[in-house]
Amino acid sequence: MTDVLRYSAFTTDPRGGNAAGIVLDATGLDETSMQRIASDVGYSETAFLVGDGSRAFDVRYFAPSVEVPFCGHATIATGVALGERLGVGRFLLRTRVGVVPVDVTADDAGLRARFTSVEPALRDIADADVSALLAALRWSRADLDPELPPRVAYAGGWHPVIAVRSRARLAALDYDFGALRQLMTDRGWLTAQLVWREAPALFHARNPSPGAGIVEDPATGSAAAALGHYLRELRLVDLPARVVVRQGDDLGRPSVLTVEVDADDPRVKVSGHAVAIALEAENLEGHGRPAAET
């Protein structure tokens, strides 16, 4: 029987953050088995590790219905789980998008993990795609923040970055699941990074991921990394920058993601705490959950 750990990332409270499954020894598991386990666990992602006897691991990430190339919150959860067992320090995760270093440290709140993204990228988004996104989100162009123009950013997965003028607009998110799933599947987007900027270094985010069969993530590390690159490339932050992203509040699962960008290293660093989930106390409400349509 495969041992599956359950951790919540970007929180110190198992009732907050984004839950991830972790299989620390996936030796001998094929893709079908990993997909079945991820579906049974039911979290937005489960990480499967195969070690080589050192502090380096091959890692694959599966959502309930599909494999994804990289998952930030499961990486944070995995880093903390490894740190608890092997001690603080650096781990190397060999993912489908490249090698991702994860540094684990201890502070007064527990163990904290920080991953360094693969080489990020930013590209323009077609006006027709913006219109299709807004239609699926049931938003209008008048809702958009003109100081934060739509783009598509990458840091292990592609995410359209869409910023709105008000917290109320973000809080009232009620999108067309089927329409957004079709658009994101066609474009190869992992999640939609929907944000509102409260202050120069403080953002609130929501992240639908219908292409992976997930209505919404309470914390999305890969999207936070993509946002960091977006902010740097558009010169929307002073470098070096440390940006806090609050996510999951509207789902009842508060999450805090810290994003670091500088001028010398193109890669983005994302950090947060993680904590084990006791099954008998688990509350699945607000987790990134499979949609009813899937």
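[next item in queue]
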Amino acid sequence: MTALRARQVSAWYGAHQVIKQVDVAFERGTWTCMVGPNGAGKTTLLKVLAGLFPFEGEVWLNDQALQTYPPQIRARQMSWLSQQDTAVDDLSVQDVVMLGRLPFQSWWGGSSEPDLAIVEECMQSQDIAQWRDRSLGTLSGGERQRVLLARALAVRAPVLLMDEPIANVDMQHQSKWLHSVQETTRQGHTVVSVLHDLNLALRADQVIVMQEGRVLMQATASDPLLHECLQQVFQQRLKFHRLSERWVVVPE
């Protein structure tokens, strides 16, 4: 049932070690959120899991070593959403979302009817269909983030990795993002995200706490030991409250 896992993974920026012998595993059909202070190594670990950053150790995707996947096959199995992507600013919104379908297209075939239907569905789900002909570079930060999310969803990959996917996104569309994640996992896909918003992170099935390049804990949001770990990492400045069927956290 494990969709993605890492064993004894380490990574460096030059001489500085930013990931230190990390072991993590992500079950199929679940959403896991990585949290921690700035500089904890969250984004670097996510890039390692995506095969976008050099590392030592082992990363396995569907019980196969990540490095052994041909690029096109890996692109079908794993979708990536970064905080910023300026390389596509000149493309129209619809063309940006269609990039998510490239791993399934031959260079001579172009977009198929199923590709067009998936792209339309993803644009509608993120309320961006009205911008289909606008270039990505003309949108605000929150608007472009919704377009990039639609592109990532359009891949329909079994594993979806997202780095700060709701940066600059308004509350209404944060709620839509949460709905998209929950629907994606209900369909059996695996989602791994990095978030600064602890209240949204506590909506995930699993939470990973990182500090100084290490994974301190992986647990459910309701685990009291997770709350203690977060208190430690954020210097005892948090209070946890049970609200209906979920936990919320407020600054102390």
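[queue empty]
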